[in-house]
Every structure is written in structure tokens, then in C-alpha cells.
Amino acid sequence: MMAHHDYDLFVIGAGSGGVRASRIAAGHGARVGICEESRVGGTCVIRGCVPKKLLVYASQFSEAFEDAAGHGWQVKSADFSWSRLIAAKDDEIDRLNGIYLKLLDDAGVDLHMGRGRLVDAHTVEVDGKTFSAERILIAVGGRPWIPEVPGADLAITSDEAFHLPDLPGRVLIAGAGYIAVEFAGIFNGLGSEVNLAYRRDLILRGFDDDIRKTVEAGMRSRGISVDYHCSPVRMERADDAIQVTFSDDRHDTYDAVMFATGRKPYTWDLGLENVGVRLGPDNRIEVDEYSRTSVESVFAVGDVTDRMALTPVALMEGHAFADTQFGGMDRPVDHADIPAAVFSQPPAATVGLSEQEALEAGYTLRIFRSQFTPMKYALTGRSEKGMMKLLVDATTDRVLGCHLVGPDAPEILQGFAVAIRAGLRKSDFDRTIGIHPTSAEELVTLRQPIE
Questions:
Q1: Which residues are catalytic?
Q2: What is this structure's pTM?
């Protein structure tokens, strides 16, 4: 580490990956500075996973009230207040923001508020001030992307959805990825009429098809309208509402239009061209397994890179970077068998290969699948099906993928992700005793392959 620089490490972006990298590097003895233009905590804590999960919890009470009668409860008429929910959510985000600020302070990391830009390979400018560093880490994450259609300024993204002054009566959600289906469930559960419009033919592209079909069925059974092969092409103000023209020439009116059409890496106005950092498709920063960019002194982690856009992945990448560069360790990042969840209603979770990915990779598969009504619904009259699926390499008996839909699917999958990451075989699942009565026991009692 060279003393003639202001810092050994300067991090641009104080989200999950940037905060983790800076804290671990400082713990290894590095002099660390970090900058942030918004609030410390990043997308996940401030305007992503955490507030979204809080709203998911809130939206599930309406279904619980409906189901209570089947279990002998008489629930009097419930009164929901959007403003009370948002205020409580804001208090929790403020608390978490304070924790992140304290984590940086306790680690001895200098925080500089403002947008950071690269001046050269060892210099960052923040709000008119410049800082030099032996190494620079870019961890600026991504931003929602809105297509350029007339009237797009009338729409919101997930960022603004957390701060709406009122709960909209009718909501159009454009898109069908995990953000779209999660917010469809949130708004629907809180009492909005929800229409989801998608230009392709099935929600949750990239997930296993059995997950996609099962989640879609659950959304429709809850009253969410799903329209395929169409998207908004024009929006106009109509009194207090928004009139939308669709690509199939239909017209309809909504109180709010939300674009959940993907996120783009926040690489603009970052000064990358001043240094020659190479960008890949969608302007994502290209990095190797050590998070190195094409410039020797510049590194990148998290959603801004050409890897997986998941908060725990950013945390892993930031930690591994700091250990390698400042802790004398050799920690390349391995992105195989990373579990993920969709907090849709019903929720889904997945780890390993999808059926299509496994077949494209040349595996001969044994496929095990169970579809059943979860016990939670036995007395409620709900006929909704859960789904559990294992993909097994027919040659080695190794479990290649696990895909779940139903109550508690994300919680169930975390433990099974360890097994799949460890390379366990189907026979290891078979000799494990199930916990009865649970949905999770299905994964260790599947005996008859469907093909």
C-alpha cells in the first residue's frame, strides 16, 4: 500500500457491496474512503428488498383475514391505512440507514456525501473535491429503466412506489420480472385492482417453467389480471387518472402506471471513459473472478457489473475483493448454485439449473415434481397448488436444481441450497427423514420421477 495516496481504497457507492468491501478492507488495515450520493444502505436497504418485503408482509394480512373463518375465527371488518404503513416503513428504513452509518464509522471508513466520478485511474472527484487512492472500487448499483414512450413521465418505478401519497385504486404494472410480480401481489393484497401487461408470453422469464406457470396461476386466482403480448405505447393525463394506449390498440384508465421493465447499471456520468474501463452489453462493467476491470487499479462489484444482480451476491463479491486485495487471501468469486427467491404471492424460490438450462447443458435428467394443496389451505377452501421440483443428473444422481412455489418457499429453500451447493445426490435426499407435517418434507419423499 502506498502512502502518497489519500487512501489505499476509495469506494464509489455505499450500498451492500460497497459498504461490505470498505468495512472488510479497513479491518485488514487499509485506509478507506467511500462516497454516496443518496442514502447509505443502497438499493436493497433504502428502496429495494427490505421495504418491499415489509410491504409484502402488510399485503398478506387481507388473505389471512379471509382464511381465518375456516379456522373458526370471526374477523370484524378490517381498516387499512396506507399512510400508517408507509410511515412505519420509513421509520424502519431510517433505523437501518443509521446502522449502516454506524458500521462505516466504527470501521474507521471516511464517508463523503456526493456522486463520485473517476478523474483518472487513481483519482475520484466527489462534489468538487478530489481524492487519490491506490485502488478504486465501483459499487454504484443500478437504476430502474423506463422505455421511451409518449407520456412516460406520468409513470412511476419501484423507487417511487414506496412513497406514493395514497394507495391507487387501479394500477397497471408493465413488465413481468420479479419486481413486477412482487408489486402486483403487494398492490392486490392491499386492495388495488391490478393489471399486469407483458410483451412476451409468460411471467418470470429466466426461471424454470414450472415456477412460472404455478406463480401465474396463483396470481390469477387472487384476482390479478395478466395480459400478454401487449405493452403501453402511450400515456396521457385524463383528469385525475392516466389513460393508457396499448400496443394492441386497447385503451384503459388507471390511477397509477408502474414500469417494472428492468434495471440498468448506473454507469452514466461516472467518468469511465476517462480511464478506459471496458463495458459489456447494457453498459455493464466487465470484470473477472477477482472483480478486476480492464484497468489495473479499478475494480467493480454488485449490480453495476456483468454478473448476477442480487444483494447477497454483491456482499460476497465485496467481501472477497477486500480479502484478496487487502487481506493477503486468494478469494475468487464463484457464482454457481446461487439461491434466489421471488416474494410473489404465492412465493417462489430456486437454486441450481432450470430444466431448460440442464437440457441445454447436455444433461440426461430424472425429473421429480410434486403439486399439492398446502396444508395451510386445508380448512380455508382455497384450492391453490404448491409445486416442488428436483432435477437430477441421471448419470451421477447429483441434484442439479430445486424449484419451489408455495407458502414459505424461500425459507424452505435456504437449507436445501446448502445441499445442492455441496453436490449431494438424490439418494442423500432419499435417506433424509422428513419433518411431518410440513411442505418441505415433499423434497425428501419424492420417489417416482415424472420422466
A1: 436
A2: 0.96
